[in-house]
Amino acid sequence: MLKEGSKAPDFTAADQAGRKVKLSSFRGEKNVVLYFYPKDMTPGCTTEACDFKDQHKKFKDTVVLGVSIDSAERHQKFIDKYDLPFDLIADTDQKVVNKYGVWQEKSLYGKKFMGIVRSTFVIDKTGVIRKIFPKVKVKGHVSEVLDVLKTL
């Protein structure tokens, strides 16, 4: 389990355009909000993405990256449909979700299955995890993230 104050696990993964995104490339320059969500185009995930979009101008010196196991093509459709101003990581091989411990057993209507537990990691410019939001409730979440960023 990752802890606040520990180094954020580095990764290189493709975004919606197939470009490689390397987390450590932001070190020394930008804070990173790494938010994990279950699936593009679903109600909660759309609300969360649009909340990040609506507040995006407030994320100064910060890169927002959404991560799910959806394909790059599906991410691009999600970005186009909702005019999202940030990149989405296509973690189709589940390497990033496993590094961050958000791929977990879930249950819905009595059925157990593996999936992404909605979580957010605020990573400072030195690559240290400053805040972990496990099991995120979408309403008001972006404001909570902005409050943490004010302290960095």
Quick overview:
The protein contains 4 helices and 9 strands, in the order βββαβαβαββββα. The protein has a 5-stranded mixed sheet. A two-stranded antiparallel sheet has the order 1-2. A two-stranded antiparallel sheet has the order 6-7.
Notes on the structure:
The chain has a single domain, classed as Glutaredoxin. The radius of gyration is 14 Å and the shape is globular. It has helices at 43-54, 72-82, 95-99, 141-150; strands spanning 12-14, 20-22, 31-36, 62-68, 87-90, 103-108, 111-116, 119-123, 129-133. With 152 residues, it is α/β, with parallel strands linked by helices. It is built from four helices and nine strands, in the order E-E-E-H-E-H-E-H-E-E-E-E-H. The strands form three sheets. Strands 5-4-3-8-9 form a five-stranded mixed β-sheet. A two-stranded antiparallel sheet has the order 1-2. Helix content is 25%, strand content 30%. The longest helix is centred in the first third of the chain and has 12 residues, at 43-54. Strand 6 (103-108) and strand 7 (111-116) form a beta hairpin.
